[in-house]
Every structure is written in structure tokens, then in C-alpha cells.
Amino acid sequence: xxxxxxxxxxxxxxxxxxxxxxxxxxxxxxxxxxxxxxxxxxxxxxxxxxxxxxxxxxxxxxxxxxxxxxxxxxxxxxxxxxxxxxxxxxxxxxxxxxxxxxxxxxxxxxxxxxxxxxxxxxxxxxxxxxxxxxxxxxxxxxxxxxxxxxxxxxxxxxxxxxxxxxxxxxxxxxxxxxxxxxxxxxxxxxxxxxxxxxxxxxxxxxxxxxxxxxxxxxxxxxxxxxxxxxxxxxxxxxxxxxxxxxxxxxxxxxxxxxxxxxxxxxxxxxxxxxxxxxxxxxxxxxxx
Length: 288
Prior knowledge:
Helix content is 42%, strand content 14%. By secondary structure, the protein is α/β, with parallel strands linked by helices. The protein folds into 2 domains: 7-105, 3-Layer(aba) Sandwich (Rossmann fold); 122-276, Rossmann fold. The strands form 2 sheets. The chain has a 4-stranded parallel beta sheet, sandwiched between helices. Helix 6 links the parallel strand 5 (152-156) and strand 6. Helix 7 crosses helix 8 (229-246). Belongs to the pyruvate, phosphate/water dikinase regulatory protein family. PSRP subfamily.
């Protein structure tokens, strides 16, 4: 993919948070790795006037040099009707699937906004929010309080992708995730760091390539020892030795999306749990 390749404007539209539109839209876009996309989320389109303003934005994009695309999960008929007036090509997930679901269930959908993402199931929604709060508290080793409650402990040298993966697991799957950075003193030995040593069956290690890790670190601290290729090589080599010593499953973040890494982590821990405890799952909290 060349740097001067055309960029396709992509819009995610919703009368709620837009999480579903983004998730399903990106699941399609990932199948086009040679294309470049400029993504824009427009959530909470709750009035006809707001929908008309969105149509103006989409039409302006449609007049540009590259054909845009919009994904929508808007459920309210009056909002959807306005959005469909745009000249921008539209993928309407609600229109594509709602009539089929209605036919199967033998009942018309309510077509009310904000019925997505588990909001209608208060217990499930609260469980996800509790997972997010826990994961924020235990991000980047900030706290080890209640770390034993973690369903998953992600470890890796700095800037290997622990935080976005943790947050995705919490928000999308309701998992309590702690992520713990491996600093130089941790890497002097192959022992797991003391605060998480008793949680070995929940630990997943993350890696990157030295070149990619150095590149990401240089965006944060350009020209520093921390960002040097030599330091990245050292930390990744020592982390890999630690993972090997304890049979820690490993996910490489270099070419994988957050969604792919989260799925791999959940699958790996479920498989390990089934082997150790055939009658039990990975967690008392069922992933959403």
C-alpha cells in the first residue's frame, strides 16, 4: 500500500453509542487491507434535524474525489428515513437484518433507539461497566489492589498494546483485566513479577517486533534509549524467555487488530481452563 493511495471516508452512524456500527463496519473493512480509511463516528442521532445535518456531511463527502461509505445501526424509522436520503452509499445493518429477525420471531421489532449494547439487560450492562472500572484501575500496573479478581492478566514490555486490548476485553466481553508492564528489573530474571506470580494460570504475554516497538516508542520519546532498537530487542528477548519459562501463552500485536487479539486471548484461556478443569470455564463472568 503506497502512502499516496486514495483515502476512503468512512462514517459510522447511530441513534445510540455507535459501538455496534463501528464493530460490524470494521469487521468488513478489515477484509480490505490494501485500502486506507478515514473513519468518523457520529453517534446519538436522535432527531430529524440532527439526521439532516448528518446527511449534509455525508453529501459533502460524496462530492469528494473518493467515494465514501457509511455504516448505520439507527433503529428509529424516522431517523433512518432521513439518513437514506444521502448520496453517500449506505450499509444499513438494521435494514439488512431486522425484517429477517422479525420473520423468525413472528413479532415486529419495537424500532426504538438505545436498545443496543446490552442496555436493555441491566444486569449485563452493569457487569460490563464494573469490568471497565476494574480494568481502568488496574491499567499499566497502577494498582494491584484486588488483582486476584482478574479474569485475565496481560503482561508485556511497554507499548506492546496491553491497554487497548484490556479495554476491549472489558467493554465488549465484560472481563476483569489487569495489565502489568514488564520493566527492566522484572526482566533481569525469568520469574513472573511478584504481584502476579500466584495468577500464572490467567497470565497472557504480549509481544511485538523490535522494529515496530521501537517505532511506537519513538512517537512517545523520540531519540531516547527507551525507544532505541537495541532496547526494544533486549526487552522483547527477555520477555519471551520469561513466557517460555512459565508456559505463558503469547499474542503478537504487530499485525493483529485488537479484536483479533482479544478473541485469541479468550480462546487460549478457555482451552487452558478446559484442560485443567473440564467442568469449569475461564471465569464466573460469561463473555458477552
